[in-house]
Specification:
Layout lengths: L1 H33 L7 H32 L1 H6 L2 H30 L2 H39 L1
Helix pairs in contact: 1-2, 1-5, 2-4, 4-5
């Protein structure tokens, strides 16, 4: 059972961070370039958002629920991560907060604001999403960083 939940945890994290990667580094910059000089790329941003949101939220839910299940099944392994466990929890909390804020606050502002305001709001959101991507990568790497540090200390 533990291995299955661990697999769900890893796949959920990859799904979530992978979707962030695609949006932050590939899709959104391509949309900006596509719309250059023609205005805010509201239609493509909207379409991508509606298509990617279910996957982002599936990844978030899978990661959070499987993380709780893993901690409940094997608290010793979780506590063995020490500081890195708290890094993972803080990272997931920031990422969840950023996604939820983006859905509830940023998305309506971007879709309903005049062009200039939409660009401003979106650029801020893009920066926050880029930070969430970096934080997610750090969280995914945390157990391996712990092993590297443990090996270096030995």
């Amino acid at each position: 059972m533990y291995e299955l939940i661990l697999m769900v945890h890893v796949v959920s994290g990859a799904l979530w961070v992978g979707a962030l990667f695609m949006n932050v580094l590939i899709v959104w910059p391509a949309a900006y370039r596509w719309a250059a000089g023609t205005g805010f790329p509201r239609s493509i941003i909207s379409l991508v958002g509606m298509k990617s949101a279910p996957w982002l939220y599936l990844g978030m839910a899978g990661l959070a629920l499987s993380g709780l299940a893993l901690a409940a099944l094997d608290g010793a392994a979780a506590s063995g991560l020490g500081l890195w466990l708290w890094v993972k929890i803080a990272a997931a909390t920031y990422m969840i907060a950023n996604n939820v804020h983006g859905t509830i606050v940023t998305w309506p502002k971007v879709m309903l604001s005049p062009e200039k305001r939409a660009w401003t709001v979106w650029k801020i959101y893009h920066a926050r999403a880029a930070l969430a991507l970096l934080v997610g990568i750090l969280a995914m790497a945390a157990p391996y960083l712990q092993r590297l540090l443990d090996g270096a200390a030995a």
